[in-house]
Amino acid sequence: MKMKKLVAVLAVVGMTGVMMAGCGSSSAAANTDSDAASQDQASDWDSSNDISIVSREDGSGTRGAFIELFGIEEKQGDQKVDMTTEDAQITNNTSVMLTTVAKDDYAIGYVSLGSLDDSVKALKIDGAEATEENIKDGSYKVSRPFNIATKGDPTNEVAKDFIDYILSKDGQQVISDNGYISNDDAADYAKTAPSGKCVVGGSSSVSPVMEKLIEAYKKVNPNAEIELQTSDSTTGMTSTIEGSYDIGMASRELKDSEVSEGLKATVIATDGIAVIVNNNNPADELSSEQVKEIYTGSYTTWDEVAE
């Protein structure tokens, strides 16, 4: 699939008949000025400029899922090797990724669908928009699980009850309300309201919805204290193995090495990964192959993508 040609289109503003005196002339002038500014901004976009490739740090679950889903990791012998170009700019969390792409007209990046905002533009991938409906029906294939993990069955009563809440109808409603795909068959929450402290930590992609879940849980169990530590998926899993976290968060599947250390994973939601560009970029969609070629360094300028 070829991306729409990266050219700006100038709008023609028509003037209509006779203007009525004193009726919104200032507002009309302001709107015309705003439209002209937008057109000037778009016309400044030059597809011959280098692509600013932005990726996440090693250990990020979002990066791990992204490179797997787009075929950016390749198997070499017994090892899987991340083929992301060395020219990529590395960001260490979701908010920095969004800010970086929003400030650079020629940037491309990727974020959790649930974290997407209007500061950037999400591209269609293989003709499908990044929406909950398209993830559910399988037309948007760039999705991954949000996992929580404990070392074996949790012994911390607050951790156990909090997990029960997350998986209940109430918890899954919080997940759905925050833009993630929930389990429609969740059971009612059997409240036990234990006292004590629980530490949850890991993925910066899971962290925003986990914060909402903690807020909601504290309303039904004010006896509980839950500390949230945000890092990345790998840190979440290793810290749970070591006992620093009662519950770890990962925005990817658990690795065999993590499971062999005794981690037990539970999917709490499904999330899409949105491929994002600056709002001034006239592109609307890319193919999976084009994304791979960009991130492996085969394409270095936007006009190469459009050829």
From TrEMBL:
Coiled coil: none
Lipid bilayer topology: Lipid-anchor
Domain PBP: residue ranges: 40-169, 190-304
Signal peptide: 1-21
Stated family: Belongs to the PstS family.
Location within or outside the cell: Cell membrane
Gene3D superfamilies: Periplasmic binding protein-like II
UniProt function note: Part of the ABC transporter complex PstSACB involved in phosphate import.
Top-level division of the source organism's lineage: Bacteria
Assembly notes: The complex is composed of two ATP-binding proteins (PstB), two transmembrane proteins (PstC and PstA) and a solute-binding protein (PstS).
Keywords from the named record: Lipoprotein, Palmitate, Phosphate transport, Signal, Transport
The name this protein goes by in its record: Substrate-binding domain-containing protein
Low complexity biased stretches: 29-50
Predominant subcellular localization, coarse grouping: membrane
UniProt cross-references to PANTHER family, sorted A to Z: PERIPLASMIC PHOSPHATE BINDING COMPONENT OF PHOSPHATE ABC TRANSPORTER (PTHR30570), PHOSPHATE-BINDING PROTEIN PSTS (PTHR30570:SF1)
Region (Disordered): 29-54
Pfam families (UniProt xref): PBP_like_2
